[in-house]
Amino acid sequence: MKYSITKIILWMNDENSYRRELKFEEDKVNVITGESNTGKTAILHVVDYCLFASRHKIAESKINENVAWYGIEFKINNKNYTIARKSPNRTKTSSEYYFSSTGEVPDLPSSNMTEGSLKEILETEFDIDKDVTIPFGGRSLKANSKISLRYFMLFCSISGDIIQHSEVFFDKQNDNRYREALPRIFDLAVGIETIENILMREKKLNLQAKLAIVEKKNSKISEKKSEFHDELKTITSQAREFGLINEESETLESVEALKLLIDTGINQAYSGKGSRLDKIISEISFLERKIRNLTRFQSAYNEYKSSLNVIEDSLRPVEYWKSKDDIVKTSIFDDLISSLDEDFHRIKQANKKRTPIDGKTSDEIAECKRLINELEEAAKALPKKVKSFSDDRDKYIFLGQTKTKLDLYTSNNNDDEITSTKGIEDQLSSIQVADTTENRDLCIKVLEEIIQGYMKLVEPSLENYGSYQPVFNYKDKKIDFRKPKTTYIEASGSSSNDMFKHLFMFLGLHELMLTKNSKHVPSFLLIDQPSRPYYGEEENLSEKRLQHSDKAKVIDAFKLLDNFTGSILNDMKKSFQMIVLEHVPSDYFNNFDNIHLVEEFRNGNALVPQEYFDSLKSNS
Predict the structure, then answer these.
(1) Which residues does 44 contact at the CB level (< 8 Å), separation at least 6?
(2) Contact in structure between 107 and 93 (CB atoms under 8 Å)
């Protein structure tokens, strides 16, 4: 993505609306060099602040306390823009933005756009589709959250905090959000992955998830249908046991037969073997009840006969009284004795005599038992599977329960239908997602080849590592050195080598991205003091010693930046801009074609120059 900053603007707090501007050239290595504590590093923080930083590192003293608005005038894809943001109130960032789609720089900005709307405009230029999301979540980043353009700006700065760090190569890695974002957007940024392929992969993952849901639902329905079938099988099996339906019929046929049987009337609920068995059981039940009744009658009759015996015994003294002449007899004695004697003989006669009831009852009981034995033998001759209801009540209860179960299970079974997965499977088969593994391996090889060329260019400054092979550590996103013809990864040895590693990797990544026409990362790099690992300036050194001195290594670093910019511009016919913040003298890079000195922050010149403070004093 073609990108360059043309101006950095500071609107000051004074009543005269003093405006500080730093102007930069396209397709150049723009260098601002100078003394410490002049605001060079603040330039990196100003750019970051104007591009929606949620926290800032702009120094309060001398800079932020005197600035009303910060702004950048820049170009994206040959379009001029200006963004200004009101200065933070100490640590609290501002939500007030000024934006011009034509690059207009106002005398004093005023808020005219929200941060969200401004991001949407720039995300279009960054070719960030609203549908492109984080593929997998972490502690700070949620899966499927939108990708921010700020994540791609990680490729556009090398801060002083990491320039001599041997392990960390990207800024903001102490922030969980950016640390988690880097591996998630790296492939897209470098060109290993494409938005189209990400969208196709997301679509495929969504369809696979949908297919899994449908298959799970179908599996449950199948299990449910199996349960229904088992329940219906149990119901029909019980019906067969009672002889209500044909034993040879299938389950579904049996269900329909049961429905028809129930619908056509309960009285027709028997046929064949079932009816015969029920009749036998019914007759046996009748005979058993008859036997019980006869037995109760016989028992009551025996009790009656027994009571007659008692009465007979109680009247036996009458004969004794009749034979005694010495008993004083009253006028009613003969009548009483005669009456008692008559009763005694009548009871005695009745008790002695066997009536037809005695034999008839026993015969009837015996006949019932005989008939029961015959019926039981007949029942044994029927098929053993056929059961019978104990009475009509049980029969009607069974049929009612059967009807309820049939209504329940057959209706539920019809409601849940298996959903066809063919449509989803056809869509899945039509989606072609590219496997990026091979492309990633090729990109890493190309990156290492590019870096190998950089290493040859500055080989003397790498000391004994000049002949080593660069190895890109994809997992940790950093460059290591490998001794030729070995698998051994060596430690870099010094902070100066770490500095070169950082330059190698970022320049290599940008060259690779330009080769692959990456649409998401600006063709821009801001480097804060690459000479940080070196101290002092050497004088009166021999040519051999000078070649290995700190000055020579710093000059080699500028040589690398100059060569890179010229190669991009002349060989690849593309654009690239760098801003380098330094403290070394300008004669370190005066002889390079693609390096432009923006300003020297010396002798009172600074990001907020001394002349501004002088003007404040003169006006007070």
Answers:
(1) 157, 159, 526, 528, 581
(2) no
Contacts of 77 (CB under 8 A, 6+ apart): 1, 2, 3, 125
Interatomic CA distance for residues 223 and 572, integer angstroms:
64
If we measure between CA atoms, which residue out of 450, 432, 453 comes closest to residue 442? 450
Neighbour count for residue 90 (Cβ, 10 Å): 9
Q: In whole angstroms, what is the distance from residue 410 CA to residue 404 CA?
A: 10
Integer distance in angstroms from the first to the last C-alpha of the chain?
48
**Integer angstrom CA distances of residue 402 from 246, 277, 493, 610:** 16, 20, 87, 101
Q: What residues in the chain have per-residue pLDDT under 50?
A: 266-274, 535-547
Asked whether the CA dihedral 333, 334, 339, 345 is positive or negative, the reply is positive
Q: In angstroms, rounded to a whole number, what is the distance separating the alpha carbons of residues 570 and 526? A: 21
CA 32, CA 582: separation in Å to the nearest integer? 6
Contacts of 465 (CB under 8 A, 6+ apart): 481, 490, 492, 493, 497
Residue with tokens 């059961």: 387
Q: Taking a C-beta distance cutoff of 8 angstroms, is the pair 152, 144 a contact? A: no
CB 218 within 8 A of CB 196: no
pLDDT at 246: 61
Residues across the chain: 620
User: How confident is the model at residue 317, as a pLDDT?
Assistant: 65
DSSP code of residue 477: T
Per-residue pLDDT at 537: 43
Q: Using CA atoms, how far apart are residues 311 and 309, in angstroms rounded to an integer?
A: 5
Sheet holding 469-473, edge to edge: 469-473, 478-482, 489-490
Q: Say how far apart CA 299 and CA 187 lie, in whole Å.
A: 104
- Per the listing, tokens 């380098």 go with 580
What's the confidence (pLDDT) of residue 596?
96
Task: Return the pLDDT at 409.
Answer: 63
Q: Considering Cα of 167, then 172, then 173, then 178, what sign does the dihedral take? A: negative
Partners of residue 85 on adjacent β-strands: 70, 97
Q: Which helix (H) or strand (E) segment is 489 a member of? A: strand 489-490
pTM over 0.85: no
Of 493, 467, 464, 489, nearest to 478 by C-alpha is: 489
CA 302 to chain CA mean position, Å? 88
